[in-house]
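Record type: monomer structure entry
Structure origin: computed from sequence
Chain ID: A
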Amino acid sequence: MKGTDILLSDEYGLLADPVAHDLVVGDVTLQNQALILKSNKGEWKEKPMIGCGIDSALNDDNGNHWKRQIREELSRDGIKVRSLEITNDNIKIDAEYENDRRD
């Protein structure tokens, strides 16, 4: 399945199944989008150029810059953005992995 990997908790720790005593695997598309948006460039050892640093967008009126940045960074991870909307208090992204290859 496209975008299948180990899931993280809301606090970004590994999600474990208490019954099976194993890590939980599932669709990570939304999880990965959030991680890419929150991360700054240089925070990922294997992909140092990926990350939007979206926290910098607070009080920034340049929505077009952030839309372009988000599209570029998600694309680096193989995610194709179909639509993207930024409002004062929300970012809505309709996107999915283009294929199984995410390197």
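Annotation 1: Residues 63-76 form the longest helix (14 residues).
Annotation 2: The longest strand covers residues 79-86.
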